[in-house]
Amino acid sequence: MKFTSLLLSSFMITLPLHAQNDPTQESAKIGESVSTALIQKLSGELKAQISQNGILAALGFCNASAQTLTAEISNTTNYRVKRVTLLDRNPHNLANTEESAILNAWQKKLNESQVLPAYEIHSKGNMDHYYRPLVINNEACLKCHGNIDPQSELGKAIKTAYPNDRATGYKMGDLRGMIVVDIPVIKR
Ligand code: HEC
User: Fold this and answer.
1) Ligand 1 in contact with 177 (CB < 6 A)?
2) What atom in ligand 1 is closest to the CA of residue 70?
3) 62 C-alpha to center of ligand 1: Å?
4) How far apart are CA 40 and CA 56, in angstroms?
5) How many other C-beta atoms can be found within 10 angstroms of the C-beta atom of residue 135?
6) What is the pLDDT of residues 111-131, one digit of tens each?
7) From the CA of 125, how far away is ligand 1's center (Å)?
8) Which atom of ligand 1 lies nearest, measured to the CA of 55?
9) From CA 54, how far away is CA 50, in angstroms rounded?
């Protein structure tokens, strides 16, 4: 009995220490907190805009501020963060080859009714790339990414701001894209 509790307590002490020294665990923590900060910032502002000023103003807000707010999170956390997608509204957010491969693999999982991972980390040289899926998990997303009548005021406003928009026609549960956080790894 005594021996077991000794063993247990030594596990309890060594496990968290080990986790702290594991660089991938560290990157997972950083990626989680930076991506959560971005989600909270964008969705908080978006909700406020929709409820206070309506959907058209909210669209104007995303158009004017999504990039700036994303850069702000990079500046305040010191980790480069971005949102990327296979079907872009803003071409600036188009996934590169490596990111597209991950998004395609996730899309395949969804098509096969598999659950997506909460995140993936790919290490390359001295950089860990943290990838977090962004799924349409809120009806509010569909207001601007669902089936939008091109003749409606909103449809026209989207077309004016983004003439080559490909980010409509989504439904609940669809993969919209992902958040990428670049985490430089000092020691490995
Ligand atoms: C008020 C309209 C509006 C709503 C509601 C909205 N979006 Fe967007 N979304 C936009 C606009 C505008 C952009 C382009 C922003 C830019 O210029 O960077 C965008 C871009 C994105 C992008 C970046 C990829 C791309 O296509 O440029 C993702 C990912 C995204 N939205 C996900 C979501 C999710 C998830 C929700 C629901 C929580 C949501 N959006 C709700 C208007 C909206």
Assistant:
1) yes
2) 18
3) 7
4) 21
5) 17
6) 999 999 999 999 999 999 999
7) 31
8) 1
9) 4
